[in-house]
Amino acid sequence: MILVIAVAVLALLAGLAANLYLRPRLLSEDDDTGMAVKDLVGPLLTLTVLLLAFVLVTANGSYGKAEVASRGEARALDQLVETAEYAPEAERAKIQAAAVCYARAVRTQEWPAMADGEASRAPACGRRTSAGPSATWRASPSSAC
Fold first, then answer.
1. Residues 77-102 as b or e (16 or more Cβ within 10 Å = b)
2. Distance of CA 81 to the CA centre of its chain
3. 11, 112, 115, 125: which has the fewest C-beta neighbours closer than 10 Å?
4. Which secondary-structure segment (H or E) carries 70?
5. Is the dihedral of CA 57, 51, 49, 7 positive or negative?
6. Per-residue confidence of the chain (145 residues) as pLDDT tens digits?
7. Long-range contacts for 58-67 (Cβ within 8 Å, ≥24 apart)?
8. For the residues of 23-51, what is the DSSP string, one character each?
């Protein structure tokens, strides 16, 4: 988001400088033989503003979708921890520990990797068991938890 704002500010400054120095020279020339550069300035400015508006709207929509997705994931994790209260004591502790481990892994590994445009490849919470389709993640002492 900061990059988009920086590029927009630089484009604005370049446009103002071009408008200040180049536009008087372009508009002072009399060219009745055909289409001149001055005839393209207005439509080009309009096209630039529309393109910038579409980029900003798209970036804002993408940010909104990411926020909604992260809130949904946090809500699901919170519901998992609350639902674990109904499980037997031993299972409850495992489920809640795995949920805490997952939340920490997302915060310390996934988000920084996503900020760099990559995917986290490090196993965050130990090894995956081979118990079939209902396999669970088990935290190991050497994991991020």
1. eeeeeeebeeeeeeeeeebbebbebb
2. 27
3. 115
4. helix 38-83
5. positive
6. 677 788 878 888 888 887 777 766 666 655 555 666 667 777 888 888 888 888 888 888 888 898 898 899 999 999 999 999 999 998 999 999 999 999 898 888 888 888 787 876 666 555 444 443 343 444 443 344 5
7. 59/1, 59/4, 63/1
8. HHHHHH----SS--THHHHHHHHHHHHHH
How is 92-128 classified by DSSP, letter by letter?
A: HHHHHHHHHHHHHHIIIIIHHHHHTT----S-SSS-B
d(CA 78, CA 73): 9
Structure tokens at 138: 């088990």
Residues recorded for the chain:
145
